[in-house]
């Protein structure tokens, strides 16, 4: 057992007696932070990653589906951008509304409701006949996905050991790229079918059903239960999930009035004092990370065609390979984030990915090999900011408003992403490829600047330490 982590779980007045008695304590005695990683933690993380997987799948599949939908419905740039951005608008609403509801009624119940909604709306997409119908359904799917983010990430943050928290939370975001990669190859396969786009959009119901079944075995968060005064129930869950020697040490007994915290008061707490500074920081860096990312995913085949990659098989295969580069970048960032720290991984990730976009802006007609290399450079180094989308929000806010804060930050980041996704086809038409890439590079470098001045370092801290406001 890591003694330094064990000491931090106790108030200072107990440190002396705790250290003296530690050698006599049963070897199996443990807290959430000091527990070894076990099969339950891995299962929880895998099942929780279903939300990010579906988000990546849903957004990437529309980029390929639009290749068939646009000529079939003779859609203009307005509807093209609106449908591409519809799920992002929904994520904004879902995160904003259901993050707070998750803090009120618990993580477990919301953990399954949102998936049921994704299944129903995904199936309904198969039958749409007009652009407005597709827009509405993708908006509703986005709301359900936005609800899942604060639910699933809060559960992982509140269950896993301290030394594994960053890697497992960051791993959730990596699954976004797994979902997008799978969607790229599924979409490529289904393009050969007449009205293959309908099957593409329907296909998101399949993983959603599997994830829904798997999540039935996941219990409520002990942190949330303690915050509601349900200590025995929390202890029973810990004994089942991390071992019979589990204790509630290290879980702060939150304000007993937290259970009665109104929606208005929850948002007020998140938007006041030092927490407002954190909301602003997270919202800006998250927005800067995903504006360019989501635009490339929503319109990847169209963008690649402009880079001398002809539309059709060549562009779609290139689209799938870019997805793999994004995934590689996430894996590399996960391996170094606990060694290098949150700040350097975030700041240098923005700088280096921005350089890749800058090359594309300066040399849009460069040889195909250099274009591919620049895209790979951007995709790989975007992994740093990407994995921190889930690490920072869950570490920087207390349990009683964690899901509210994560939902708020998710929602605000999606406003910019939705605007960027909606504007991408318009920008490509009116500013050209080079002008669009200049804007993308500027957004990445803005993220680096904001992170340099605002990003805190939470490496090595437990949840209570990371969320604490310091004078």
From TrEMBL:
It is a multi-pass membrane protein. Keywords: Membrane, Transmembrane, Transmembrane helix. The keyword Disulfide bond does not apply. Residues 44-459 form the Major facilitator superfamily (MFS) profile domain. Gene3D superfamilies: MFS general substrate transporter like domains. It comes from the Bacteria. CDD domains: MFS_SV2_like. It is found in: Cell membrane. The chain crosses the membrane at residues 53-73, 79-102, 109-128, 134-156, 168-191, 197-218, 275-297, 317-337, 344-363, 369-391, 403-423, 435-455. Its main location: membrane. Belongs to the major facilitator superfamily. Sugar transporter (TC 2.A.1.1) family. PANTHER family: PLASTIDIC GLUCOSE TRANSPORTER 4. This is MFS transporter. It comes from Arthrobacter gyeryongensis. The lineage of its organism: Bacteria, Bacillati, Actinomycetota, Actinomycetes, Micrococcales.
């Amino acid at each position: 057992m890591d003694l330094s982590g064990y000491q931090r779980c106790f108030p200072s007045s107990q440190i002396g007696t705790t250290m003296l008695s530690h050698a006599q304590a049963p070897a199996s005695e443990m807290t959430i932070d000091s527990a070894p990683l076990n099969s339950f933690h891995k299962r929880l993380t895998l099942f929780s990653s279903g939300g990010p997987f579906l988000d990546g799948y849903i957004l990437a599949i529309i980029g390929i589906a639009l290749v068939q939908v646009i000529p079939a419905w003779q859609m203009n740039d307005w509807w093209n951008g609106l449908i591409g951005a519809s799920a992002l608008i929904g994520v904004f609403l879902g995160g904003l509304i259901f993050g707070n509801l998750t803090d009120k009624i618990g993580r477990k119940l919301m953990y399954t409701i949102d998936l049921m909604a994704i299944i129903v709306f995904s199936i309904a997409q198969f039958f749409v006949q007009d652009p407005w119908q597709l827009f509405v359904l993708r908006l509703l799917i986005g709301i359900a996905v936005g609800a899942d983010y604060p639910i699933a990430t809060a559960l992982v943050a509140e269950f896993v050991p301290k030394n594994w928290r960053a890697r497992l939370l960051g791993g959730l975001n990596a699954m976004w790229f797994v979902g997008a990669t799978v969607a790229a190859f599924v979409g490529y396969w289904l393009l050969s079918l007449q009205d293959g786009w309908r099957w593409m959009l329907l296909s998101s119901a399949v993983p959603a059903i599997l994830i829904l079944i798997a999540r039935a075995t996941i219990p409520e968060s002990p942190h949330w239960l303690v915050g509601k005064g349900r200590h025995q129930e929390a202890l029973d869950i810990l004994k089942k999930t991390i071992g019979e020697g589990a204790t509630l040490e290290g879980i702060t007994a939150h304000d007993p009035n937290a259970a009665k915290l109104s929606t208005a008061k929850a948002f007020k707490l998140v938007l006041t004092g030092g927490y407002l500074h954190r909301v602003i920081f997270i919202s800006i860096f998250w927005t800067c990370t995903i504006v360019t990312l989501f635009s490339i995913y929503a319109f990847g085949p169209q963008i690649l065609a402009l880079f001398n990659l002809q539309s059709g098989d060549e562009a779609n295969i290139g689209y799938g390979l870019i997805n793999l580069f994004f995934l590689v970048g996430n894996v590399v960032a996960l391996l170094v984030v606990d060694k290098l720290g949150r700040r350097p991984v975030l700041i240098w990730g923005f700088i280096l990915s921005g350089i890749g976009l800058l090359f594309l802006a300066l040399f849009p007609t460069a040889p195909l090999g250099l274009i591919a290399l620049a895209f790979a450079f951007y995709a790989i180094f975007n992994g740093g900011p990407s994995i921190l989308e889930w690490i920072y929000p869950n570490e920087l806010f207390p349990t009683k408003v964690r899901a509210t804060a994560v939902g708020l930050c998710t929602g605000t980041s999606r406003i910019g992403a939705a605007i960027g996704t909606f504007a991408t086809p318009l920008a490509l038409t009116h500013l050209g490829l080079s002008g669009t890439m200049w804007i993308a590079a500027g957004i990445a470098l803005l993220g680096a600047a904001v992170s340099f001045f605002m990003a805190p370092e939470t490496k090595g801290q437990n949840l209570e330490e990371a969320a604490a406001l310091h004078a």
